[in-house]
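Here we describe the complex-level prediction in full. Unlike the single-chain runs in Section 2.1, the two entities below were treated as one system.
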Amino acid sequence: MRALALLLALAAAGALLGAAQGAPAPQRMQVTEDEWSLALSRQRLRPGIALIEVFNLGQDAHDLVLQRRAPGARAVRVPRLDYFQRRTIRVRLAAGTYALWCSLPRHRERGMSATLRVR
Amino acid sequence: MATPAYTGPFGKAQAERLLWRAGFGPRPGEAARLAKLGLDEAVRSLVRPGPEKLVGPEPKEDRGRPLAPVDAYGHDHLWWLDRMVRTSRPLVERMTLVWHDWFATSNAGVGSQRLMLQQNALLRRHALGSFRELLLALTVDPAMLLWLSGTENTRRSPNENYARELMELFTLGEGNGYTERDVREQARALTGWRYTWRRGAGAVDFRFDRERHDPGMKVIFGRRGTFDWRDACNLCLQHPRHPRFLVEKLWGAFVPVPPDEATRAELERLYRTDYRVRPVLEAILRHPALYTGPRMVKPPAVYLAGLLRGLGRGVDTASWVWLGGMAGQRLFYPPDVAGWDDGRWLDTATFRGRWAVANYALSPYSLSDRRGPTVPNDPEAIVAGALRVVGEPTIRPETRELLLRFARSSLAGARTGWKAKAYPPLVANAVRQLLVTSPDYQTC
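The structure predicted for the assembly as a whole is:
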């Protein structure tokens, strides 16, 4: 009985290890910020986990908001970044259309917005 | 008259120098194999390589994930470093680096790793080919158009940025056979390029727009015509001072002292026929000055790539990005359009970076008295082991003696007791670090 338990434990550990090894790498995207634009390295991502890197190449500070266009969708915020600073966020994306923008006063109106499609 | 060729012994030491100057150093055993070919065949194997094979482990970041060169900061640097480490065509990769420095474009101004990587592919495609084709392609390369304001250069508002660098840095040299009027007229000839701005995607669809081009009469280098961007490039290439500029700059990438007059004239003749770089490179790599002249400091990227090749280690950490910057060479981010300043490769700040690079490179091979093989309490064996771990590089007898002296003095008080076991691995680690930061290994 004890041997069986050991075998089962080993099998479970093996399965977990296999899952970890076989897990696909998360998809990645870079958002480059500048005055007054956002540029996405990918226009489209698949549903699931994504690593999104926000990289401020502008001279001013910028932040970033990412929000799915759906009722009640929660916004993900990246705090203010100075020139050449960057921050990577890990998000779970559902199918749909996402709006991205810089929320500092008048930055969005000046052009710092973009759309990401997830499907 | 052909350029002179080196006729001295072509052994492992000479093959090592060739592999470092024309590539990223040897893998273990590679220098000895190349030496057996003799000089002519060795050079031929570099300038006429077969199809590229990437040899060694696939690159990855610290968590074992694959690289995302377009989508993650620094992965562009890692991606290229991996090519340098694993390539079977080292001269192609080295010339890609030479052209990156020559036509220095920085992502700090471009803002798109995708466009920078496209430019990198262009440099690689033309690495050993025609300088004319390379210049024409680069003049309208999207990253270059953004970097040097090519798309802001219109008939109504000419921008002189690219026109000036085209002559000053790319084809003629500062103030060498052109005037301020030529700069202004070249700028007019180069007008007409634009892109479409797509929200969220940035600059796309780079193209020539006749409406933006100035079709009027221009006078460049005393010649009159309704010149366009192709003419702007061709006029520079046909300028009598261009071949000398190209030969001296290209030579300087491989040999640290200027060529003698006869060599320079012959290299110019080789180049002038049809702007091909390969014959010039072949002559430089066979020239006695490369084998008998003074040593050159390895650029930081070359130093690191070669160290990893010698160790048999792949790209497995993103630390190379900040360490590259610390050592003075963050790929895709040259300091300005003039490229990197070779004189800073070994200053007090960048040497500290090199020291850190060496430390990080060697760390997976670090020895301990608690794990791994037992290190003999023997200075000779420790120095021999250090040389073995980085692929048996050739070092001067005096350097070897210094390493031995260090090992002897460090082990002197460790003949018995716990020190007899604990000290040898520590000394071995230190000897390895001293070896790869020694003048012999920092230069080639």
